[in-house]
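#random but structural
TW: two for the price of one
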Amino acid sequence: MQRRELTIALAGNPNCGKTTLFNKLTGSRYHVGNYPGVTVEQKIGEVEFQEYRLKLIDLPGIYGLTAYSPDEVVARNVLLKEKIDVVINVVDATSLERGLNLTVQLKELGIPMVLALNMVDAAREIGLTVDCTKLSQCLHFPAVPVVGTKGDGFPGLLQAVIRAAEGNSEFNHIFYGAEIEKAINTVTLMISENLDVQYDWRIKESFLLRWLAVKLLESDRAVKAEINTLIQDGKLEEAVQKGFREVFRLLGKDPEAVIINQRYSAARKIFKGVVSENKWKRITVTEKIDKIILNKYFGLPIFFVIMWILFRLIFSLGGPFTNAIEWGFSSLSTLLITFLPEGLFRSILVDGIIGGVGGVITFLPNILLLFLGIALLESTGYMARAAFIMDRMMTKAGLHGKSFIPMLLGFGCSIPALMATRILENPRDRIVTMLVVPLMSCGARLPVYTLLAAAFFETDIAGSVVFSIYVAGMILAVIMAKVLRSSVVKGPSEPFIMELPPYRLPVMKSVLIQMINRAKMYLKKAGTVILLASIIIWFFFSFSFSGNKGLIQYYPAAPEKSIAGDIGHALEPVLTPLGLDWKSGVVLLSGLAAKEVVVSTMGTLYSIQDNTDLSSAQDGSTNGLTQRVREQSGLTPLTSYVFMLFVLIYIPCISTVAVFHQETGTWRWPLFLVGYTFALAWIVCFVVYRGGLFLFYS
């Protein structure tokens, strides 16, 4: 049977349960990517219901349709410029009044809507009852109670969506008052006389014109810039300014303030008419937990204990799986060495591909556990509180807790963390945050820490060693924020305002789907970027200058005399004061491409070195990477820790520098980032190495 297709957009505030509802509806039938031209994540899935195939678009969480952040720009552009049949407005029943503020804005677009009143069970627990029949009457479109985590109410929700798509929905908009409405009508008329409304817009003409007029009176910069490219004779700007002056003369306020107040008043009026509250309201579980978690004395220690437990679990639980994968690649190398004749092909296969890529894939379990832990903390609502807890420390550094949100994202990857600094309104706060975000240990660095900790520290303390590196990054980020804020980027900071979502039990299916998607991305990177880098690194370790007219020849027996060896020896004088040698120099240099390449370089280097000593191992056996690093790297527990610190501090990858340039529009700050992180890495490592020698070897 041919199913009719409908395109449905899910819109709602952050933390309203929208993505949980999306995941529950679509199951695993969705794909994740980025919206064209931006790094904002896009999720599109499908669900079949009756004779319809519904294409669901999970929009980024937003509070309004005035585009301040990339998330809001993306969500608004999808609603305005794509063919959306129905909008499902997901609203948290425990925060209904705030959610309705977005609802009244979405109504103005004139797109058929259904309100999904999510978490009605949680609302009942805190003594709130919402009359959905009254709510539907007030909004003039269906309001359906649902519980996204359980799937309760989904059939009724989908049925309401289909009715909204098939029927003639009743649309209305806010009445902003006679003065504002007069200004809106004047600007609307001017737009209609001069603008071709078919230009890249999909919503109905009558609603579009009024919406554009409202946005111009709100001083929406994005709308103003786009309209001004189409209407350039100055008449529209004149009409807008006339409306501004008239409203200000009559009300003593600018139109933007009046419009915002009217929206809040409309949302408040609807809320008061549909919600009944138990006057004997009991203290919620969230409030009880927050009395401890957000305590000014216990909050920060609890945060560090939680992170310490996370990294201990990553190391202890991931260890057996990592060892099994390492054994598998080692056995494969042994098999190939036994059956393949010695030569170029065997070397590139065993030393280049298996030694490099295999070394990276070995640590996939640790990466998965890291993202699993972060996803669990996010889904429970704790990560938002971590930003709140860190606000006091960040304030002393000249920033505020909101800056800690991109820093937390830096635990995953520095690139989206840099993008996330767009949430900061103050340009100075944003620049400083971008300069310290790379000091947070991204997931790509974890395999390096795990490898060295396993090689040089006992199992029972290895997890704590890795945790200490992460803490060192956070402390350095706060210190450098203070230094930069008081020297390079001076200026006042802004107050911190943040909404804390209620605690929720994580939806394990959604968490596992996130983890699986991360695994796919990691393996894709291992099979593309890291594979190419491993082959290039193998070439530099396997070939050398012959000295005869500068010719390059295959010379696998001595990596120290290879092209890479020459580069390493050139860097050695800079690294010797840190207790590091030429091998460490080559490995650190390769990490500029991506921090996973550090592990693949070690895999290639020590695989070549291991396999050139087969005369002493007549059975042709090879050691696992951890053992080879322990035996051949020349590192000690102290110098391995110094090496980890250097990996922590200097730039995560070249891609980070490129994104920094893209975000700031100048090379000044990206080049400053490169210079100061290398200098900071050298200074910190020098102090730690010399201090370690004094404490442990004096």
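TW: number two ↓
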Amino acid sequence: MTDRHSIKRLLIANRGEIAVRIARACRPLHITAIAVYADSDRHSLHCRVADESVALPGSLVADTYLNMDAVLQAAQRSGADAVHPGYGFLAENAEFARRCRQAGLIFVGPDAGAIDLMGCKRAARTLVQKLNLPVIPGYHGADQSLPALSAAAEGIGYPLLIKASAGGGGVGMRVVAHSDDFAAALPAARNEARRAFGDDGVLLERYFDRVRHIEIQLLADAHGNCVYLGERDCSLQRRRQKVIEEAPAVGVDAGLRQRLGEAALKIARAVNYAGAGTVEFLLPDRGGAGAEAEFYFLEMNTRLQVEHAVTEAVTGIDIVTWQLRIAAGEQLAFSQREIGIEGHAIECRWYAEDPDRDFSPQTGAIEYWRPHSGAGLRVDSGICAGQVISSYYDPLLARLIVHAADRPRALQAMVYSLERSVLLGPVSNQFYLRRVLQLPAFAGGAIDTQFLRRHAGNLGNHPGGGAAQCALMAAALAYYHCHYALSEYHQRSAQLSAVADTATIRLLWFGQEAAVRIAPQFCRAGVPAFQVDLAERSAMVEVVAVEAVAAGVDCFELVIDGHRAAYTVSLSDTALAVHSLAAGSLRLPLVSRFSLAGNRDQHSGYRAPMPGRIIEVKVAAGQRVERGAILVVMESMKMESAARAATAGVVEEVFVSAGDSVEADTVLVQLRETEVAL
């Protein structure tokens, strides 16, 4: 190491769970961690975990975490001598790396030249081809005109993938099934890429329906030492976004691992890489295609990956710590021969999204957060109770990582941990993750990038039958106690008695109104009993105990039809949130205080499917539109979506303008539908 103490004050140019992860890695290295925060992140966990924090005025990503001037000014104001970009935002921005070094700051990452080269997918493909490594058939030429790209697409054949040349994370990607769809998909991909990366260049690739996504993790120092830390399987994806990752990859033997690793090292050495990086490959299904290459180069990520923790778990190497040590001039302390893989690790990405509403991002306050803890489990989280999840940023809440002796034990441990982790607040994909892990096909290792799409019919986000009904009863009973019965409700108590009138509580339950009737019954030995009625069933419920676990949050132990279980319930003016072991976490809006959208009739109101920002309004009042016409384009949590006319009609009124921020269910456009003449 040229100077063991060259990093003393580190500015973390990021937010959320990765900023927390980096801040905690600073402590054993005796580095002061400095956070930055946008207005909406003022009370976020990453600011609390860091030693200091500096404001980035504003809330929009472009004004804060993507604003190089603001971030560099924060580094100067705080006296930082180094900057860690995390992942996303400015992590793969060569200009930012260059400006950090020009400002005398250590940039925790590779040289700007390597970022430039590998960050441009066209240039990266050209380099890899020169190294005689296989690349995916496609087009990565400089001519970005529509005629050139259309001609290239015809040569590649359909289906194909349009991909942003810069950046990653699934942003700026479109799968095009037919040539008729190409002209519409291209500008959408370009617009998304321009907003996210400041570069609207694209490349075209052959689209594989059955393929596995395998990554090789690299560490390289500035002294010529470079090693690979095994592979990760990141095939479980939805809309190009990874959901579940694991290491090592099922079916990758020692020989294939070595060939992939040596290919990754060859690429890294060709660009004099230094730092942590990942080379990604596709492994096509060779069952019916003997001419396919064993693997194809996909891209290189010149930064830390979200899924780095599974590699850390099976190798015992702290990748973030080594990023900092390499940036400070140290040499790697281990050789390739000394790197082994022990056991199996799985990571689940916990998102604020609603799988039952096409995975639309969700917003709102975290009412209660209690992740499970235990041997072999790691939780990388960026949330805390009271924090508000906004529409400005990616909806990732936390990452759960388990490490066990083998894959079956790791699967069992992950399901166990998901069952016992409690999140009350925005709707999340918690139960969906449990469903995926419990699919026999997943347990058998028969996975690829289309796995989630193929099994979508078996992956609802809520339990069926009795488990969900019991959770509904528990939530209604909690509301009943709070509003109708006991003044000592919020006190810790082992036994409660209650005398109150019968009440009917109306809740929204998976999109349908549910009326829960609660009638107090006689008490046995001081234990209150209630008759609870639903349209589907009736049950006798005994309140065994109630414990206040947080402000506005209580844990009920109930006996329902002879089955004792615990339910954690949070009550607000508009909704009840309830968690149980069997049903996971459910959010149940109160119908009496909930504004339901009216049925669609000849005066249709088109509503925002999620919170977000209006990018473009395509129509005006009085305009006639055809079925399928785009009415409004909006962006939420980095992704672009469009509201389309379900039928031909006339626009009666437009309620939004470009640049507006809207909440879910906001009416965007009012359309008077018309009959189409045949």
